[in-house]
Design a protein that fits this description.
The structure holds 2 protein chains of 2 kinds. Chain A is mainly alpha-helical. Helix content of chain A is 75%, strand content 0%. Chain B has helices at 3-15, 51-54, 72-86, 89-92, 109-117, 130-139, 182-193, and strands at residues 28-30, 40-43, 48-50, 59-65, 95-101, 124-127, 146-149, 155-158, 163-166, 173-176. The chains are: A mainly alpha, B alpha+beta.
């Protein structure tokens, strides 16, 4: 039994295969979430905490959706296809593991997580350092470039440990990247909306350039997918072009969607009459806690 | 996209190591085939195909495989087809790709033609008596293919994964292993066509 998806030399078929490492990881994340939620409920001793708990319940589904998408990305069949058969599946995994899942998981974190973090000065200092917007942007884009470099992909994706390493880097970099946008770090001035939009836009530049290389390269860039047993659906070049398009369009779609949400919230705040008229959604967790 | 932008992207890709990693695999030269390459098999039209005579004057890629192959055969054929499609026609028209089946029981001429057409309609498919095909492989210095059938009649085929390349004049030949990438072919095929010996790979 294999514990993580990686490249294999056997032909692709639709026989289900378990990846026990993925299940263990997701089970640990789910257990941690439940523990944090219950610990938050146990601490319930004031109206303010009650409001937090109510807000937690509303956001809880975002965490479970993020966990579900993480499972879809890492387990069979998408994990197996991306592990060693199709570059396009690998890129879809990147979008889910590195962008969508960390965003949803952070949005769904219970208030007690932040309370506990705030009580740990060293951890808080590390988090503040890593999630400073400039640092987060640098970390995410460095991971993006390294984990999509042909030599890294060809070498790492051929082993389960290497493949796990790439997935872990994507997820951690994604979590760091989204933190300044969706999560407050106590005692830091709030990241202004305009700056948040600029931060997100800044993140489309390097990814867009890498995507263009994949789309317009005359030859396959990744040996592992070029020499993989064919699935019969795409040529290696078509597969790579789809991967590039996914990186460009899919990545931009995610970032621009979040930018739009930030923009419209900012607009409503700047135009209070409009807010009353449209009766928008309740304030976000970010705003409630800042 | 303009040629200039493509050029900038290609330059950036190459300098950043983002290009196809050509140069990792190359051909290994073998002694001239002599009479071992002098054989006649049957093509997908059912006509006799005299290998030496039909491929004279072209760089010839000879591969022994089978159409039900799940990995090596389709990857080699797809990579050769993709590169020949991109090379200038003055180069690609001087290259002949010949596929010899090692599983003639399942690979009927029609089946082979359909399979090869999925890659490139110019690829030649040959079939023949298994003993004759075995002798040809041995004569060329390739390990002969083995076809084993289990109790359910499912065939398990083992075969050499090398592409054997003959120079135009048949005086020289090289073998390219599985793992040869499109970038390697794109680098070596023009040299082979122009008669310049390609870089040697260290081992088979």
């Amino acid at each position: 039994m294999r514990w993580w998806c990686s490249a294999q030399t056997v032909a692709w078929d639709w026989t289900w295969r378990p990846y026990i490492g993925v299940w263990i990881l997701l089970a640990l994340m789910a257990a941690t979430y439940l523990w944090l939620s219950r610990a938050g409920a146990a601490d319930l001793d004031s109206d303010a905490a009650g409001a937090d708990l109510s807000s937690d319940n509303r956001r809880g589904w975002l965490f479970w959706l993020g966990l579900f998408l993480l499972w879809v990305a890492l387990d069979w069949p998408l994990g197996a296809l991306g592990g060693g058969y199709l570059a396009s599946a690998h890129m879809l995994q990147f979008l889910l593991v590195g962008l969508v899942a960390p965003l949803l998981l952070e949005l769904g974190l219970p208030a007690s997580f932040f309370d506990r973090l705030a009580r740990r000065p060293i951890a808080l200092r590390v988090v503040r350092f890593l999630t400073h917007p400039l640092m987060a942007l640098a970390i995410f884009n460095t991971v993006l470039v390294i984990t999509h470099h042909p030599r890294v992909v060809d070498a790492w994706m051929s082993t389960q440990l290497g493949s796990f390493g790439i997935d872990a880097l994507w997820f951690l970099a994604g979590a760091i990247f989204w933190w300044p946008v969706v999560c407050p770090v106590p005692a830091r001035a709030r990241f202004p909306d305009l700056a948040r939009m600029g931060y997100l836009f800044g993140n489309t530049i390097i990814a867009g350039f890498l995507a263009l290389i994949l789309v317009f390269a005359d030859l396959p860039v990744y040996g592992i997918y070029e020499l993989a047993p064919p699935t019969g659906w795409l040529t290696s070049r078509e597969d790579q072009q789809i991967a590039g398009m996914l990186m460009k369009v899919g990545g931009a779609l995610i970032l621009w969607t979040v930018m739009s949400v930030i923009f419209f919230r900012w607009y409503r705040r700047e135009n209070p009459e409009g807010e009353v008229a449209t009766a928008g959604p309740p304030p976000s967790h970010v705003e409630a806690r800042s | 996209m303009t040629r200039a932008v493509r050029g900038i992207l290609a330059l950036a890709a190459a300098t950043g190591g983002w290009g196809c990693d050509a140069g990792s695999t190359g051909g290994t030269e073998m002694p001239a085939a002599g009479t071992a390459a002098d054989f006649v098999l049957t093509d997908t039209q059912g006509q006799p195909y005299d290998f030496l005579q039909e491929t004279r004057g072209s760089v010839t890629m000879l591969f022994f495989g089978f159409t039900n192959c799940p990995d090596v055969c389709p990857v080699h054929m797809a990579n050769l087809a993709a590169v020949l499609d991109q090379l200038p026609s003055r180069i690609s028209r001087q290259v002949t790709v010949v596929f010899v089946t090692v599983d003639p029981e399942r690979d009927t001429p029609e089946r082979m033609r359909e399979w090869l057409d999925g890659f490139d309609r110019s690829f030649v498919g040959l079939t023949g008596d298994p003993e004759r095909v075995r002798d040809i492989q041995l004569g060329l210095g390739l390990p002969p293919a083995m076809v084993r059938k289990d109790e359910q009649g499912t065939a398990d085929v083992g075969h050499a994964s090398h592409v054997m390349v003959f120079s135009k004049d048949r005086d020289r030949r090289w073998v390219y292993p599985f793992g040869t990438r499109q970038g390697d072919w794109a680098r070596d095929i023009p040299m082979l066509v122009e008669g310049t010996p390609p870089a040697q790979s260290e081992e088979l």
